[in-house]
Specification:
Alpha-lytic protease prodomain-like; Alpha-Beta Plaits; three-stranded mixed beta sheet
């Protein structure tokens, strides 16, 4: 039995929480034992990821609540708000990593242990695979917060990659290059901030009802033209609410039909569009005479 969008998103979020918890323990432990702040910084980010994924999970569960008197369109608008929270976690973790990296650059310490490279290689491969898995699920569920969670995995993979490079430089060149992994962590923090912006921008557009759904508008117009009695379509406005879309459509019909016929035609058009495009949860049809 195929999972619903919401159930699939929740299941994917549990995957992120469990994975981030195990990796945070591995990174922090390896970082302390292996004298690598880059790994410790990586562990700090994974710890933040646990909490952000947890909030994503709470957001999905809240969004599943049915429409009520105060929320006639449902509760799915909470999703971009959760995305903002995820971005806040990213910015916070990047700031902490940058601050601690600068402190460690100025503090003499040992060269990281060579075995930490093996740990990092495993983490890079796992995080990249996690990114691809969660991003695929975000595309299937049309979830912006799940996409943000996917980019958490990608930023984690990049952070681990920079740590791998930094530790490799420290090990290859030896004395005088002990801080290479700290510089790597500092570079990683800049990349995390850049990713935070990439996640924030589309979520802001969703909250502001930005018009970015030209392909969907074209699909709605094509679907409408197959309904007998619909001459053409005029205005078509689309906005996203969680994993679904809200649509306002102006349909042109014969001016000589009765009000009742126009009313029935509007319902027929509404049902047809929602059957053909199930991602649309609400559609308002306005009849225009020709």
């Amino acid at each position: 039995m195929e999972l619903s969008q919401e159930s699939s998103a929740i299941k994917t979020t549990y995957f992120s929480i469990i994975g981030n918890t195990l990796l945070a323990i591995l990174k922090l432990g390896s970082g302390f034992l292996g004298n690598s702040y880059a790994l410790i910084a990586d562990g700090i980010e994974s710890t933040a990821d646990i909490f952000s994924s947890f909030f994503v999970l709470l957001g999905f569960k809240y969004a599943q609540r049915p429409p009520d008197k105060n929320h006639p369109y449902g509760h799915s608008r909470i999703e971009p708000l959760i995305t903002f929270l995820v971005v806040a976690f990213l910015v916070t973790s990047a700031t902490i990593i940058a601050y601690e990296s600068i402190i460690n650059i100025r503090t003499p310490h040992k060269i990281p242990e060579a075995w930490t490279l093996i740990v990092l290689l495993f983490i890079i491969l796992w995080k990249e695979a996690s990114y691809r898995y969660v991003l695929n699920k975000s595309s299937k569920t049309n979830s912006s917060s799940l996409k943000a969670d996917a980019w958490h995995h990608r930023s984690d993979a990049i952070t681990s990659l920079t740590a791998f490079i930094g530790i490799s430089i420290a090990l290859i060149f030896g004395k005088g290059f002990e801080t290479a992994d700290d510089w790597a962590a500092l570079c990683a923090s800049a990349f995390i901030l850049y990713n935070a912006y990439l996640i924030f921008r589309p979520a802001l557009g969703e909250i502001m009802d930005e018009h970015i759904y030209d392909d969907l508008v074209e699909e709605i117009r094509d679907t409408s033209s197959s309904v007998n009695g619909i001459i053409a379509t005029e205005k078509c406005f689309v906005r996203k609410a969680g994993m679904k879309y809200l649509v306002e459509l102006h349909a042109i019909v014969n001016a000589n039909i009765t009000v009742k016929e126009g009313h029935l035609l509007a319902h027929e058009l509404q049902d047809h569009i929602q059957n053909q495009i199930p991602e649309i949860s609400h559609i308002t049809i306005h009849i225009e005479p020709n």
